[in-house]
Every structure is written in structure tokens, then in C-alpha cells.
């Protein structure tokens, strides 16, 4: 839905799209050697910048990334965001636990519950909004423990497909963060267009 061509040119998500662009711009301002795009899906192995994806399954003839067609939707949207930002450098696409060696930044692609309202794709589950709000709170506070301890069984019930990537983010940061390091967090958006939860946030680790 974030991609205008997929959303039939509707402007409902213009503000959310701008928040995403601002977040990616802030990410790339750290001048990384490599961008890791982390998302939901089931890649057999991590892929590099030669990998690409398409929105053909959504009825749109739009290809992004490298020359292949092997990225799942979450990573395809990540590739689309990087293209909008003009990033042409090295990248890693992962749906598992990627190698974070070197000067890297993570672009984590993760949506929330699709069961927030009776108009949502998965209809209504009364637990959905509270679940999404708990993640928004964690993202705003830089709370890695909350993300690392996400209940993935509940996520499946709530159609929160992005939760595994958020949990991986939490465990990665916990394992690699120095004891006295701090996280500066900014929650840019916490919205639910069409009954699906979306957040946009930036984290920076110092120390």
C-alpha cells in the first residue's frame, strides 16, 4: 500500500510515505558501508544488491533492486525505499539474522496487526491495537528488551507479519550493544491506514 503505483495513485498514505523517506534519509546520513534490509519472509540465505523484487503479484509492473526477482514483499518495499533515497551502495537482504560486521545500518521492514477493525484484512481482534501500541511504545523508547521478547505466537494470531523482524532487531541490538551504550529513538509515525498498523522510527546507538 505504501507504493503509489500499488495504491492506485491514492494519496491516503502521502504523510506516511514522507515519514518513511525522512527515516531512510536519516539512516543514510550515518554514511554506512552497507545497508541491511531486514524483513519478513523465508529467504534460504541472505542476498546482496544483485537481488531484486517485483510488485507484479499486486498487479503492478514495477521492478526494484537488482536484476533478479527473488525478494519477498517486505524486502521489495525496502528496495523501493532505498531507490527513492538514491542509495546505490552495497546492501544485504535478510529474513533471518544477518551479518552486521562493519559500518552498517539496518532498514527494518515490519508492519503491525491486520486485525485492528472490522474493515481490516483479518477482521477485528480486540487485542490488536494494544499489541501494536506496545510496539510503538518500545520503538519510541528504544526498548530493545520489549522487542526481543515479542510473542510471535500472538503475532500470528493477530496477522502481525512484521513481528519476527522486530524481534530479530531486538535480539541483534541486545547482543551487540556495549553495556554502557544508549539508544536515541524517534518515533515518526504510528498509524493504521486501512486497518493495518504501521510505524516509522529511527534508532541510533551511541557509546
Polypeptide structure, described:
- It contains 6 helices and 8 strands; from the N terminus they run αββββαββααααββ.
- The mean pLDDT is 94.
- With 207 residues, it is an alpha/beta fold.
- Helix content is 32%, strand content 21%.
- The strands form 3 sheets. It has a 4-stranded mixed beta sheet, sandwiched between helices.
Query: Residue-averaged pLDDT, rounded?
Result: 94
Structural class by SSE content = alpha/beta
- The unreliable regions are none
Record the strand order, biggest sheet. 2-5-1-6
Order of helices and strands: HEEEEHEEHHHHEE
What characteristic shape results from the CA principal axes? globular
Give the helix proportion (percent range).
25-40%
- Kindly, what is the distance between the CA atoms of the first and last residues, rounded to a whole number of angstroms? 37 Å
Strand count, sense and barrel status of the largest sheet are: 4 strands, mixed
Descriptors for this entry?
single chain; 207 residues; alpha/beta; four-stranded mixed sheet; two-stranded antiparallel sheet; 6 helices; 8 strands
Task: Set down the secondary structure blueprint.
Elements: H1 14-28, E1 34-39, E2 47-48, E3 52-54, E4 63-65, H2 73-85, E5 91-94, E6 104-109, H3 128-141, H4 144-148, H5 152-157, H6 163-176, E7 182-191, E8 198-206
Parallel strand pairs: 1-5, 1-6
Antiparallel strand pairs: 2-5, 3-4, 7-8
Helix pairs in contact: 1-2
